[in-house]
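Entry:
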Amino acid sequence: MIPENCDMRFEVSTRCNYNCSICPRDKLTRKIETMSFGLFKTLFDKIIKETGQYDTLSFPGMGEPLLDKSLDKKIEYAKKKKKDLSALILTNGSLLTLERFRKFEDLGVASVRVSFYGSNSASYSKVHGVKNKMLFDKVRNNIEKIAQAKKHTKLLLTFNVVKGENEKCVEDWINIWEGKADLIEVWRPHNWVNGRVYRKVQDEKLRTCGRPRKGPLQIQVDGTVNMCCFDYDGKLTIGDLKKQSLEEIFSSKPFKKILKYHESGDFAGSGLICENCDQRNKDKSDVMVYNSKFNIEDRVKTISTTYSKVL
């Protein structure tokens, strides 16, 4: 079974120019690289030949996608091959100028989501792990210009509240961006399974996070397929799309093992990182602080690209 989702996610790079405090890049053992256009083309063609279920192409992952010099070429190729495809980009915004945003509009990109974790230079620099104090003004000014000039491509902004770093900026941040962006969201950071410790792993857990049956297709930078976007280091890799079909990957022993435990809800002895993942917390009242568009109780049960439900 291929999970019931319409989003194929391509991690086009594991390179990043930021060192965000909430990101476990310091624990990453996977290779730091960028996916070539040739590999992207091969994998994309393989997917759409096998199934027509995917109508969304998104670019998240453990790197900054705008560092990929062939990103525009990849988007252009994909949208020519599949006319109804919706393309989504997730970025830290450091390289997102008005000119670049207009290029994305020309390419037909549906939305650009920017992680922007501060309302002043000090808080921004601390959370994003950057030394250049001028970056905050640069990124903010670019986002302001984009907010005024955007036409077809939606601008989405995300803020993560980090205690001791930017928690005093939340109200100011909301006031600055409310009404300017198409969507603003304020979250409390998750644990990246075992990469960080922000949320308490509760005793009362859900049987499953829902991703084995309803999650997006997660393609890592080397062409392997991962079960979960929170698994930053590929511990839940279930196959290699360079060598296998989707049907083979989602019929494989690694996938069946994950699915088995998510169906039973008993992860004892499984050896899976899912056992103590905060995504299985039953009480999700502490996950989201603010949302300008969606009901928070509903939003925390969906993914951050297509907003399709996983729970």
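Strands lie at 7-10, 56-59, 86-91, 109-115, 154-160, 183-187, 217-219, 224-226, 237-240, 288-291.
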